[in-house]
User: Fold this.
Amino acid sequence: MPKSPAPESLPTVKVSPRGATRLKAGHVWVYRSDIVSADGVPSGSPVRVTDHRGKPLGTALYSSASQIAIRMIALDPVADFPALLRQRIADAIAYREPLVRDTEAYRVVFSEADFLPGLIVDRYADILSLQILTQAMDVDPVRQAIVAELTTRLHPESIVERVDPRIRELEALPPRASGLLQGEKSASTFTMNKVRFSYEALEGQKTGAFLDQRENYAAAAQYAKGDALDVFCYQGGFALHLAPHCSHITGVDSSRPALEVADQNAALNPQVLNGKEVEWIEANAFDLLKDYASSDRHYDTIVLDPPAFAKSKRDLDAALRGYKELNLRALKMLRPGGILVTCSCSYHVSQSNFLEMLADAALDARRTLRLLEVRGQAKDHPVLLNLRETAYLKCAIASVSY
Ligand code: SAH
Assistant:
């Protein structure tokens, strides 16, 4: 493998005083507007970062296209980036070893949260699914180092790459198709909290499943009871975990392919379901909740796990209105003593925004909520305290007053 240049020969990027202040506060991104000079820096290259006077601030990965021009990887000089990357992958695996329990599927590498900006790796039993999100991770020797280290450490049957064409476009990378990088297997099953799921590596959303909800599935199952409704159920993650504790459960989603997999997943779990049937309804959740609320339907447990409504900061108000509408309708349908499990995966919606929205919805619904748990993403999706962008998932579990 080609050696990286010695640190002193890395190209230099100078950042503005505002950029330097952000970095000193522990942030790891500098936006293009805070770059003072990056003359002749090759795209996707590791770079030396200095302040405007030339004082060294560390080593970063440079993107010639993204608004996020540099992503820090170390406070020190880095001589050999592929070697550092291999060490970081080993560290990410070691971090999870004592923390990840009862699952064959989990996130192995989570980009900035594992000091590997632009790399996401998920494990689904014997298949690894990776996403490359930046120029620096797309360079051939870097790709080779990623695949080599993952193979040595985890011995997967195959490695698949999932490509988001929009991200490649934003990073000015040539188009590329999703596909197998190694091995031939692209379908498998995995068990999570004793529930089995089927997995098609080249289909579905994200890299296949919503692994960030793994611990929330188990938490919600502890409170679930009676008639339950899992709204935005996708492939049945919450519904299948809740089913053993409920008398009847219905999953709702607007995606037919997702519901088809949900139904296959139900069939994989005779022990979990113990003869119980899960009903899957293809519908727009907003319309369905409106109909059900006005026809006086009642439930003992409702899960709300919508897609991210706020894709940018500008959408925050509209997103909060959307969340409030859903939560309000759900609260009106919950019986006294009922359980609401409500989530938001928009990182522009902070935990306090989310809880305020929920409090408002409760006031309007004339219900009192007791918060049982306020949760986030599973621990294999780490949150860096000094990098708030790494925290995005909120999951509140609350009991409706009698
Ligand atoms: N709870 C799921 C993840 C939900 S992701 C799990 O744990 O696996 C969000 C889901 O919302 C997707 O499956 C998407 O198909 C669905 N969706 C998006 N808009 C919708 C709408 N208006 N009505 C119903 N479902 C919708």
Observations:
- The CA atoms of residues 107 and 380 lie 5 Å apart.
- Residues 210, 213, 232-235, 237-238, 253-255, 258, 284-286, 305-307 surround S-adenosyl-L-homocysteine (CB under 6 Å).
- The longest strand covers residues 334-344.
- Residues 316-333 form the longest helix (18 residues).
